[in-house]
């Protein structure tokens, strides 16, 4: 049987809430359940949608971000990760042309042009009919380089509604309508303060994926969607600074712990893979249930929702104490956002105070409004375990947490923010021994210094101390 041509498509919307996640996850699940090999991608700094796409595909989802990554890096990442795929499905973010400025910089449209693959446009048709055609036509005309090849109608109420909108779109735009998704009677993805609930915390996640797969198989013309996808080609561009597998991996294998549970699940697949390429064995740790840290050479605590799991984290006192002992003894620890919170003294929620690891003397709280939301940039001003002085790093922040009390001084924070909020007073990056904790999230392919800097310190400490072993009671 001849090998199928590898193809790809970007699924975009007119705005957030258009239904592109429903279509992206559902189409990925439907094709996967039909025995097709799909590699999903998510545009932008997003962990939660990427997690649902990963669940739908049964393997890693990767993030492509034109702000964090230059075009060469994006093409290399897309080409490398889609090599084993029949289909590469890229979910956009926000509206098709929405970017950081009026010119649409770093938008989904710009990403589609970099990848040179077509777009399937998802439109929320709630309380509208012929106007949908006008909106789609506007997208076609705003930038005629952008290759929109089809439309999916979402939130369709009746057969008459579907018929009118379909006829209007196809008549006035010339684009085919390749599916119409009916109005759902329930939320497929449960919502809360940061948006969609991560699949790790939703007991009905498997049933939701099954429902979306069957819904898209019924309401999308999947055969025609396959036809409009663009060829991916056979070549993968080389990348000068792409990290390669460490030749010392077999003789100097490092053990790096990663908190992976309901409280901590914000990790880019690329970050974990970058560590593995540098000779690391990743040890997944459940901070809610583990009794103590295992033997490790380093610890990576990503973001997540420590605030929604505060009671369980606080109750696991023995584990919290083992983390504090590890930090005090010099274990290299890199902590982002939720990881930073966990290393604090406590978090106050609705008048109750919950104890945390106590590495840093910080009391956190939670606000009803986002305290930081968007891209960030910091420069490294002071000595720290992982970044060289003078390095400038692009990242992103999204948090509702607040700093209620910290007795340190801003100059003790090693990172200067030129964009974004950071921890306090336009600065980020708390250090203690070999710990660096910050609110900023980084992407390993956009920040090639991150993984080598972290692992170099892990190797140095391993050489000096022969790794960390918890000697607590």
Structural account:
With 473 residues, the protein is α/β, with parallel strands linked by helices. It folds into two domains: 7-231, 3-Layer(aba) Sandwich (Rossmann fold), CATH 3.40.50; 254-465, Rossmann fold (3-Layer(aba) Sandwich). The chain is built from 13 helices and 26 strands. The strands form six sheets. Strands 1, 2, 3, 4, 5, 6, 7 and 10 form an eight-stranded mixed β-sheet that branches. It has a six-stranded mixed β-sheet with strand order 13-11-14-16-26-25. A four-stranded mixed β-sheet has the order 18-17-19-22. Helix 5 (131-142) links the parallel strand 5 (119-124) and strand 6. Helix 1 runs parallel beside helix 2 and helix 5 runs parallel beside helix 6. The chain is elongated and about 70 Å long.
- The residue-averaged pLDDT reads 92
Class derived from helix and strand content: alpha/beta
Could you say which overall geometry the principal axes of the C-alpha atoms support? Answer: elongated
* Ends apart, CA distance between termini: 61 Å
CATH architecture of the largest domain: 3-Layer(aba) Sandwich
Major sheet description: 8 strands, mixed
Counted up, domains total 2
> What would you give as the CATH superfamily of the largest domain?
P-loop containing nucleotide triphosphate hydrolases
CATH structural class of the largest domain: Alpha Beta
Supply Rg.
23 Å
The poorly predicted ranges are 247-251
CATH fold call of the largest domain: Rossmann fold
- Estimate percent helicity: 25-40%
């Amino acid at each position: 049987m001849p090998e199928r041509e590898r193809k790809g498509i970007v699924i975009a919307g007119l705005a957030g809430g258009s239904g592109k996640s429903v279509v992206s996850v559902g189409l990925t699940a439907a094709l996967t359940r039909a025995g097709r090999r799909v590699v999903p991608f998510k545009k932008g700094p997003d962990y939660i949608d990427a997690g649902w796409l990963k669940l739908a595909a049964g393997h890693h989802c990767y993030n492509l971000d034109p702000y964090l990554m230059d075009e060469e890096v994006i093409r290399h990442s897309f080409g490398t990760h889609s090599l084993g795929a029949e289909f590469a499905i890229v979910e956009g973010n926000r509206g098709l042309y929405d970017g950081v400025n009026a010119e649409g910089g770093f938008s989904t449209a710009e990403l589609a042009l970099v990848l040179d693959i077509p777009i399937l446009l998802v439109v929320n048709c709630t309380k509208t009919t012929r106007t949908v055609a006008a909106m789609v036509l506007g997208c076609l005309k705003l930038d005629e380089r952008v290759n929109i090849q089809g439309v999916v109608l979402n939130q369709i109420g009746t057969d008459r509604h579907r018929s009118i909108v379909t006829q209007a779109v196809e008549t006035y735009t010339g684009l085919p309508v390749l599916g119409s998704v009916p109005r759902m009677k329930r939320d497929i993805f449960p919502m809360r303060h940061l948006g969609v609930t991560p699949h790790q915390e939703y007991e009905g996640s498997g049933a939701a994926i099954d429902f979306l797969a069957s819904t898209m198989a019924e309401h999308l013309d999947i055969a025609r969607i396959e036809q409009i996808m663009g060829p991916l080609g056979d070549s993968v561009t080389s990348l000068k600074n792409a990290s390669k597998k460490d030749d010392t991996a077999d003789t100097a294998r490092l053990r790096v712990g990663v908190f992976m549970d309901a409280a901590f699940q914000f990790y880019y697949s690329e970050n974990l893979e970058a560590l593995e390429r540098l000779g690391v064995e990743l040890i997944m740790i459940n901070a809610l249930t583990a009794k103590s840290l295992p033997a490790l050479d380093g610890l990576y605590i990503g973001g997540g929702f420590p605030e929604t799991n505060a009671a369980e984290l606080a109750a696991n006192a023995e584990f919290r104490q083992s983390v504090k002992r590890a930090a005090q003894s010099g274990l290299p620890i890199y902590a982002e956002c939720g990881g930073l919170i966990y290393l604090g003294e406590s978090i106050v929620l609705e008048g109750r105070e919950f104890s945390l690891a106590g590495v840093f003397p910080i009391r956190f709280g939670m606000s009803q409004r986002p305290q930081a939301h968007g891209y960030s940039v910091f420069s490294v001003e002071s000595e720290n375990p992982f970044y060289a002085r003078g390095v400038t790093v692009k990242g992103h922040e999204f948090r509702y947490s607040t700093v209620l009390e910290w007795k340190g001084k801003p100059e003790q924070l090693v990172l200067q923010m030129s964009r974004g909020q950071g921890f306090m007073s336009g600065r980020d990056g708390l250090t203690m021994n070999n710990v660096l904790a910050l609110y900023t999230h980084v992407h390993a392919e956009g920040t090639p210094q991150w993984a080598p800097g972290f692992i170099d310190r892990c190797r140095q400490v391993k050489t000096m101390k022969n790794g960390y072993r918890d000697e607590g009671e």
